[in-house]
Amino acid sequence: MSDDVVLAVDFGGTKVEAAWVDSSGQVFEAGRNRAPTGPDATSSELEQSVVRVVDTALAQIPAGTRVVGVGIAAAGPVDEDNGTVSPINLPRWRRHPLRQLISDRLPDPLHDIPVHLHRDGVAIVLAAQWLGNAIGARNLMGMVLSTGIGGGFIVDGRVLAGNSGHIGQIQVSGFTGEVSIGSRTTLESVASGPHAVAWARAQGWTGESGEDLAASYRDGGDIAYSAVLRVSEAVGQAICSAAALVELDTVAIGGGFSRVTPDLLPLIQSVVNRHPLQYISRVKILDAGLPEDAPLAGAAALIYRRDIVGLP
């Protein structure tokens, strides 16, 4: 490990986690900890969880290292200029000053270090370009297929920051799913893990989870196959729409549901390849190749890779 470390904080809809990360992207286990969040938590409880993980990490700064910043990846929407967050699935926090909350926990010797907050999709695409299978890509979309669907963009070597990149909220034509943030026609409402499972169950499938769906697909189940094909068509359509608006060469896909079957990414690639416009059909689909620590590494990248984000 190098001598420089960043305090990385990953704040999401179910938990908040903090850890020290070095300049190679390696996460220290000492000081790493998490606390629950969740839609039923009060504002005070959310604050207490953040304070707990940050204070625990600060009490265990790795010996012989120099703290060079704090990177905060948060569920969006976010207001980067003011350092506030309004996570869709955490209704008690609207325009909540998360960056200031964390800055206030820093001891006096660390008061001058940079503290940067961005949306979690920005952190994930940074991690894919820094540590994953899309290393060095200049025109990249990172996607997460999981309980929800999110993402972020790097275009011409620079991050599109702010709240751009919410690929899960793009409208997909010809599909209707379950309600997600008030809509039944977004990519997330159709292709996220829980919604894909719900669709399969509505067709008569008797499984209960993404893992069950994966097993049924391996066993040759017709409904499971149809569910995976439906996901690939919707995700492929969304990628084509994104590539029509933003210059893309590569899409790096990760997240738990992206591993429902090894066939999923090739199926998505085939949808993209069928597009009649060559600048869209040439877009390459990759497994993001991200480790379990990717959200924390991506948060740390807000400091280590801040030139790509356009930060001082």
Description of the molecule:
The structure is a single chain. This protein is an alpha/beta fold and 312 residues long. 35% of the residues lie in helices and 20% in strands. The protein is built from eleven helices and twelve strands. The strands form three sheets. Strands 3-2-1-4-7 form a five-stranded mixed β-sheet, sandwiched between helices. A hairpin with a 2-residue loop joins strand 9 and strand 10. Helix 3 (120-130) packs across helix 10 (294-304) and helix 6 (210-218) crosses helix 7. The longest helix is centred in the C-terminal third of the chain and has 24 residues, at 222-245. The chain is globular and about 60 Å long. The model has no long low-confidence stretch (mean pLDDT 92).
In short:
This protein is of the alpha/beta class and 312 residues long. The chain has helices at 43-58, 98-103, 120-130, 187-191, 193-202, 210-218, 222-245, 264-273, 278-281, 294-304, 306-309, and strands spanning 4-11, 15-22, 33-36, 66-74, 78-79, 84-85, 115-119, 140-145, 149-155, 158-160, 250-254, 284-287.
Whole-number radius of gyration?
20 Å
Strand content: 15-25%
* Largest sheet geometry: 5 strands, mixed
Low-pLDDT runs: none
Shape: globular
Output mean pLDDT.
92
Secondary structure class reads alpha/beta
Order of the strands making up the biggest sheet: 3-2-1-4-7
Instruction: Tell me roughly what share of residues is in helical segments.
Output: 25-40%
What string, H for helix and E for strand, traces the elements in order? EEEHEEEHEHEEEHHHHEHHEHH
Number of DSSP-assigned strands: 12
**Total number of helical segments?**
11
In whole angstroms, how far apart are the ends?
24 Å
